[in-house]
Write a structure and sequence with these properties.
249 residues; 2-enoyl-CoA Hydratase, Chain A, domain 1; 2 domains; 4-stranded mixed sheet
Length: 249
């Protein structure tokens, strides 16, 4: 039986996507198609400001469903899903509730911010399966030395180690994880959305840019932000000592 990607809207601006394919939430072809369709649907909502991604049960995601790979060409399909995730303008927060393995680990790395349960476990499983995964994203996130220790051994890493490595930015008890992830998402959604999206874009490219290129990119973006109604609203709210009301204009 095929699993499902659940959708839930929290407030006006946060969309929660939950991977539900027990027991380990693999993402075979049908699940990947559902996930991409869900991204298309939530991004069509003009009020969207943040996507919160999590898994149901004891796993965040176990990666590709290897049972359907010979017939479906799984790895290419998984890469396409990650590229679609990379193209998402809204910030994506991953709430990692349990096992995060192989392609599921790569899925988490493609998110902008990761918070985790104290029971979460992370495995860069490419070498365990005679494949390669996370060899690009992981070193950029936690540094080459620590990344190689995970990538070349295929050993699981516990939540405390993941936090120490900078793989996740916060740990929470299992029952408190979603509340913390929602609070983080709501906080991001309360900031100026054009500014948030621009900041995500530039920060995501920062490690590939020299100072000159960064200055050019920021020089293209900042005048538009300065001219925005949201910037004017932020200044007015500061002067009037009130919370700003942003409208994405």
């Amino acid at each position: 039986m095929t699993g499902i990607i659940h959708r839930e809207k929290i407030g006006d601006h946060v969309q929660v996507l939950t991977i539900d394919n027990p027991p380990m939430n693999p993402m075979g072809q049908a699940m990947r198609e559902q996930f991409i369709a869900a991204l298309d649907e939530v991004e069509a909502d003009p009020a969207l400001r943040v996507i919160l991604l999590t898994g149901k049960g004891k796993a965040f995601c176990a990666g590709d469903d290897l049972k359907d790979e010979p017939a479906k060409g799984g790895p290419a399909g998984f890469a396409a899903m990650l590229e679609r995730l990379d193209a998402t303008k809204a910030p994506i927060v991953a709430a990692i509730n349990g096992w995060c393995i192989g392609g599921g680990f790569e899925l988490a790395l493609a998110c902008d911010i990761r918070v985790a349960s104290t029971q979460a476990r992370f495995t860069a499983a490419g070498v365990n399966m005679g494949l390669m995964a996370s060899a690009y994203r992981l070193p950029r996130l936690i540094g080459v030395s620590r990344a190689k220790a995970m990538l070349l051994t295929g050993e699981p890493v516990d939540a405390a180690t993941a936090e120490r490595y900078g793989l996740v930015t916060g740990l929470h008890e299992p029952d408190a994880l979603m509340d913390a992830a929602v609070a983080l998402s709501v906080r991001i959604a309360s900031r100026a959305p054009l500014s948030v999206e621009a900041t995500k874009l530039v920060a995501g490219r920062a490690v590939d840019m020299g100072p000159g290129e960064a200055a050019v990119v920021q020089g293209q973006i900042l005048p538009k932000l300065r001219a925005s109604a949201d910037h004017a609203e932020a200044v007015a709210a500061f002067r009037e000592k009130r919370d700003p009301v942003f409208t994405r204009r």
